[in-house]
Amino acid sequence: MQTETIALDREAARELYLKYRAHQHYAKPIDLEVQRTYNAIAKGRVVVKALDSIVKAGVGDDHYPKLAIVRADAEYCWLDYRRDGSAVMSQERFYRPMHTRTYIEFPAGSFPRRPDTRPAYFEASRQAMVPLIPLEHRPKRGLANYHILFEAVRHPSPPVDPMLLRRIGLADLWVVLAAWELTEVERAVLAGRV
Q1: What is the mean pLDDT of the chain?
Q2: Is 42 among the domain residues?
Q3: Helix axes 29-42, 10-22, angle to 10 degrees
């Protein structure tokens, strides 16, 4: 799976982190977000732009996004794809806009317009199975604080090579905590969940 990564040398990131840290008394939340990003890169972590990766991956032959992202505690990722190219990826079939931790919204024009002849308010919904996190990569607690980025193989087939991510702040910056390929046994167990 191709992702948009932040390319920065570890030493340069460490120097920038120390500069931000030296002036943290005057820092605003956005400065702390930058500082945390530099710190993650300085520690050798991979930082990706997950939402940008999803948009740049585009749509497949079925006219739906190739990649998906959802909270790690979800069983399924629901996609509501609108004709104007906007989309919502949610762990619930009918997302509630007031619960912003349960869905991720993409603005109009993120994806190509849908080739539908239905009314403009029409939303196309799809479901993709969220991959299983192997025990060695699974966080001990707080699974709802993590997200999984994966190839959106449509229901009932499980995905193959997901990534476990943790969002750094409000920006599209995510630390990659783990990346793995599902074994044939894990895929069979997931397929049996249908």
Answers
A1: 87
A2: no
A3: 150
Q: How far is CA 14 from CA 24, 47, 64, 175, in A?
A: 15, 14, 40, 16
Do the domain assignments include residue 23? Answer: no
What is the count of structural domains for the chain? 1
Token digits for 77? 């990722």
Task: Please give the Cα distance from 56 to 2 (Å, whole number).
Answer: 9
- 3-state helix, strand, coil split of the chain in percent (to 5) is 25, 25, 45
Q: Is residue 88 part of a domain?
A: yes
pLDDT of residue 37: 96
Residue 87 belongs to what domain range? Answer: 57-166
Stretch 11-27: mean pLDDT, rounded?
Answer: 91
Q: What percent of the chain has pLDDT over 90?
A: 52
Identify the band that residue 186 occupies on the pLDDT scale cut at 50, 70 and 90: confident
